[in-house]
Amino acid sequence: MTRLLHRSIGQALPHAASAQGVYITDTEGRQYLDGSGGAAVTSVGHAHPEVLAAMRAQIDNLCYAHTGFFTTDAAEELAEKLVNLAPEPLNHVYLVSGAQKPLRPL
Q: Which of 27, 42, 53, 73 is 20 to 30 A removed from 12 (C-alpha atoms)?
């Protein structure tokens, strides 16, 4: 029994227990190829050693600083990389914590 309201009411969902690379393993030991995308999801896989090391290094330095009050080296470096990839005249970025729908169709 669950207290969560899932997107599919009345359907028992697999219970994800762990993940490695591109696979999620449920509590029954079944593996699933993780082809999903959405909020807070990136295509780097699960438990990638380089990603985990980068996360640990950032957490050891600074977990979070509200962007309404602070800037950080990590944010400034990301903005610089994104601007360098963007076409002219795009020369600034606005960082958000989730997917944003365009104001108009692209």
A: 42
Instruction: Give the SS3 label for residue 59.
Output: helix
Distance of CA 29 to the CA centre of its chain: 25
pLDDT the model gives residue 99: 55
Buried b / exposed e over 13-42, threshold 16 CB at 10 Å, is eeeeeeeeeeebbeeeeeeeebeeeeeeee
Q: Which pTM was predicted?
A: 0.58
Please answer whether residues 22 and 34 qualify as being in contact, where contact means their C-beta atoms are separated by less than 8 angstroms.
yes
Cα dihedral 27/33/36/40 (nearest 10): 60
